[in-house]
Amino acid sequence: MFTRIIKGGIVRQRRKLLLIALTVMLGVSLATAMLNVMLDVGDKINQELKTYGANLNVVPRGASFLGDLYGLEEGAGVSDKYLREDELGRLKTIFWAYNIVDFAPYLETPVTAPDHDRSFTAVGTWFRKTLDLPTGEKVATGMRGLKSWWTMEGDWPDDAAGDQAVLGYVIAKRLGLKPGDRLDVSGPNGEPVSVVVTGVFNSGSAEDD
């Protein structure tokens, strides 16, 4: 009897039941599509922002941007603060770790090329470095990923080599150097350093110099 009543209700209200089923299907499809967009949009935004370079600068506690704002010189007790290189992996252990796609340290120093009678700024950094994180994971990071829009003539340096460098195309043109050439420079303390130029990059910014 009960089965007959259910079957009769289905037959008599077929259109209403089909409309309900269609509504449920549309609702489930819409919810699924929204979830896919929400889960995927973060990754796409990260990749888009990555093509425009770093959007976050990390400085040690006690340091500031007073040098940029007021011309405070190094050694004044505020601008000459540094992060420890062996602690940079902690960036991938904070709450926003998955939003940090790539990172690299910067250590700038003025150098002179005696053979070319030129002075410019050298930047020490990572090009492709694998870090062991405190969580037990491994992460590969560095300038190769951070500056993915750079056009490079030649190759990126090998971090393990230690005596390789890349030049911005402006300074490379002034020095008359190309990939494969050797460049001799001296730092602020006068100690000579010889490096092999593995590549010449074009960043479209002040880094070219």
Tell me about this structure.
The chain is α+β, with helices and mostly antiparallel strands and 209 residues long. The protein has helices at 2-12, 14-50, 66-70, 143-146, 169-175, and strands at residues 107-113, 118-124, 129-132, 138-141, 151-154, 164-168, 182-186, 192-202. Strand 7 and strand 8 form a beta hairpin. The longest helix has 37 residues, at 14-50. The chain is elongated.
Helicity level: 25-40%
Estimated share of beta-strand residues? 15-25%
Oligomer: single chain
Straight-line distance between termini: 89 Å
Unreliable stretches (pLDDT < 50, length at least 5) are none
| DSSP summary, beta strand count | 8
* Radius of gyration over all CA atoms, rounded: 28 Å
SSE series: HHHEEEEHEEHEE
Biggest beta sheet attributes: 4 strands, mixed
**Broad structural category:** alpha+beta
How confident overall, as mean pLDDT? 79
Choose one word for the global shape: elongated
How many helices does DSSP assign? 5
Short note summarizing the structure:
The protein has 209 residues and is an alpha+beta fold. The protein is 31% helix and 22% strand. The strands form 3 sheets. Strands 5, 6, 7 and 8 form a 4-stranded mixed β-sheet that branches. A two-stranded antiparallel sheet has the order 1-2.
